[in-house]
Specification:
Heat Shock Protein 90; binds magnesium ion; 13 helices; single chain; elongated; Beta-Lactamase; 13 strands; binds adenosine-5'-triphosphate; five-stranded mixed sheet; six-stranded antiparallel sheet; alpha+beta
Length: 443
């Protein structure tokens, strides 16, 4: 904190100056304390000084140590053309008052720029801007090196009085505090950003390892089955019926690995925003009818009744991907609902811009511990799952991967829609898919 007592050396100041100085200083320190941007704090400092020194126009230039150049931090009353001409000036003796003050780390007073040798190169722009005198003081960076310069211009030849010197000293010191504080904040922010980036990278790497482990685990069982049945096929005394059976098991297990891999690939492309998606008007009814046809055998195997109430809504979507989403929802309802249950698909308007597809079942509901992360890859219930060998049997429940809803959710969103659980409990589940209506988007 800056001690500011009305005794010496402030004896040079009028009592009203001291009061004014205290008030202005407090206002600036409040700006610094609430981490206002540096340009705003510097502008506050400069306008305060200009109010206390009528006729003076002030600026702060910040020193870029790496390039040895000065750049405007604030110059509220200087003509923009002059500010632009001076910005980026290289420091050195003969570089006006500020360039010289920064190079020598000492105050430089040019009482008249027309006669001052350090102003030869900048004389014309200064005079064009109505500036005749310039007094520049280095701003101390706390380590003995300047962090910038504090300039006071007048429109007439002018040398500083001792009152002005005291005022400029105080405000230069305030500027030094403001710049130091801004650097500290910047360092803190940079450290925080680096720390956040490090943590995010760690979390991503952890998530990637988990995903790889899950994929590896998923793939191992069917691949072991393929290897086992392939060995069996190598046995010479295998009869024709057993040979066919082994081939069927191999086919089913290989199909499962293929599904797993294509789902994982789609998932990673979706996450990278790199899944190519078409956008065409699609009559939702057609897609639902196709899906119900594809799943009719599975439904029959589980004695599930399929019902539908379909309007003639047209959506903007990628037809193949829309089928994939609806297929997953209806397959889930059949697979995770009750044997002998009922599944119903309804299509209708949601609002002026969207169409809703509801897939309802009367099954046991999504396990409550899964509800919160149902769209996370590899989330799945603990319901008994079948081995790939059993999956090859007609009528057996097929292997569950736990990627379907994650993919469906990602696809729905990528197509400009959404997917959520409208309701799930002991009396059944209702999944709600929203899609952009084609006429609403001008298709
Ligand atoms: N209609 C439903 N009723 C009850 N539980 C459901 C329903 N739909 C999904 N679930 C639960 O959510 C889990 C995740 O579903 P998801 O579709 O992502 O994977 P999955 O069906 O297990 O495997 P797949 O990757 O083959 O789709 C399921 O394992 C199941 O426990
Ligand atoms: Mg599924």
């Amino acid at each position: 904190m800056i001690a500011l007592e009305p005794g010496p050396p402030y004896a040079e100041l009028r009592p009203e100056d001291v009061r004014e100085l205290m008030d202005r200083q407090t206002a600036v320190l409040e700006l610094i304390a609430r981490a206002a941007p540096l340009a705003e704090v510097l502008t506050g400092i400069l306008t305060s000084l200009e109010d206390l020194m009528p006729g003076a126009r002030c600026s702060v230039l910040l020193l870029d140590h790496e390039h040895g150049t000065l750049h405007h931090g604030a110059a509220p009353s200087l003509p923009p053309a002059y500010v632009a001409a001076i910005d980026g000036i290289a420091i050195g003796e003969g570089a006006g008052s500020c360039g010289t003050a920064a190079a020598l780390n000492a105050p430089v007073v040019a009482t008249d720029v027309l006669t001052d040798v350090r102003w030869v190169r900048y004389r014309d722009i200064a005079v064009a801007a109505g500036l005749r005198s310039c007094w520049s003081t280095p701003i101390d960076g706390g380590d003995g090196r300047p962090v910038g310069t504090f300039a006071v211009y007048h429109s007439r030849p002018h040398g500083p009085s001792s009152r002005e010197q005291l005022l400029v000293d105080r405000f230069t010191h305030l500027a030094s505090i403001a710049i130091g504080h801004a650097h500290l904040l910047e360092d803190g922010r940079a450290r925080l950003e680096a720390e956040t980036a490090r943590r995010t990278a760690e979390e991503l790497s952890h998530a990637k390892s988990e995903l790889l482990a899950a994929v590896g685990h998923e793939a191992r069982t069917p691949i072991q089955a393929i290897v086992g049945f392939a060995e069996l096929l190598g046995t010479m005394d295998l009869d024709e019926a057993r040979r066919r059976e082994a081939l069927a098991h191999i086919g089913a297990a290989a199909g499962h690995v293929m599904d797993l891999l294509s789902d994982v690939l789609d998932m990673s492309r979706l996450e990278a925003n790199a899944l190519p998606l078409g956008r065409e008007p699609v009559l939702v009814r057609d897609v639902v009818v196709e899906v119900l046809g594809l799943l009719s055998t599975k439904a029959a195997q589980r004695r599930v009744t399929l019902e539908h109430h379909l309007g003639d809504e047209v959506v903007l979507a990628d037809r193949r991907r829309l089928r994939q989403v609806v297929l997953n929802l209806v397959a889930n309802a059949i697979r995770h609902g009750h044997t002998g249950g009922r599944v119903e698909v309804r299509v209708g308007p949601s609002d002026a811009d969207a169409v809703v597809v509801l897939v309802d079942d009367d099954g046991p509901g999504i396990p409550s511990d899964l509800l919160g992360w149902i769209f996370t890859p590899f989330a799945r219930g603990a319901a008994p799952r079948c081995t790939p060998t059993a999956a090859a049997d007609e009528g057996a429940q097929e292997e569950s991967i736990g990627l379907g809803l994650g993919l469906a959710h990602g696809l729905a969103r990528a197509m400009g829609g959404d997917l959520d659980v409208a309701r799930s409990g002991p009396s059944g589940t209702s999944m709600r898919l929203l899609l952009p209506r084609a006429d609403a988007v001008g298709a």
